[in-house]
Amino acid sequence: xxxxxxxxxxxxxxxxxxxxxxxxxxxxxxxxxxxxxxxxxxxxxxxxxxxxxxxxxxxxxxxxxxxxxxxxxxxxxxxxxxxxxxxxxxxxxxxxxxxxxxxxxxxxxxxxxxxxxxxxxxxxxxxxxxxxxxxxxxxxxxxxxxxxxxxxxxxxxxxxxxxxxxxxxxxxxxxxxxxxxxxxxxxxxxxxxxxxxxxxxxxxxxxxxxxxxxxxxxxxxxxxxxxxxxxxxxxxxxxxxxxxxxxxxxxxxxxx
Length: 256
Prior knowledge:
GO molecular function, one term: methyltransferase activity
Region (Disordered): 236-256
Strand order of the largest sheet: 1-10-11-9-8-5-6-7
Keywords: Methyltransferase, S-adenosyl-L-methionine, Transferase
Shape: globular
Largest sheet: 8 strands, mixed
Number of helices: 7
Structural class: alpha/beta
Pfam family, one: Methyltransf_16
Radius of gyration: 18 Å
Strand content: 15-25%
Helix content: 25-40%
GO biological process, one term: methylation
């Protein structure tokens, strides 16, 4: 069963307001260039992301914007300063860049064919701007996990993932990767867009290993933002039993 934190599903108006605010963070070049790029405003910085249309992993998807917005607007509750963070399926690197700008020590990972563009984006947007310079590292889900990320020496405070579940044949390997990287006190922040029944099936399987809470839900985008930890390790961020009157109604994207 999926639990919901105190910042329950936003009403339709709140959903529209927050989604509009998220999408306003994106901007496009005034003049077309030979390389496709998009711009974003997060964590007090202008971020330019180089994209490629020939790969799912080289495009910024809305789930990444949702996760970035959450990290920025909840930086007190989810304080990333000096925290070890790994992003799986980092793609263009936007989430990793925002986490780095918020003070985290970040490892951005993806497939080898995406690593060049990922490294370019991360370096371009974080050099001399971050407390910890992030790194980009190859990670093929389920492959050589103990060799490349030994559990004895690789401890991550947060695992971040945006839109890693879609129509691909590596869902078993993805679950294995979550399982390997997540230790008892690791928090998973995972934004997912629901498209097909496979997404629901993966969530069910995910919950055999992890406790799962809905942090926020965006019906207009079909995107849900989850927080997860190993079974039995989750502690609620808020007291149980708050009434509807105690839930904020100002459209703010935060949990009490």
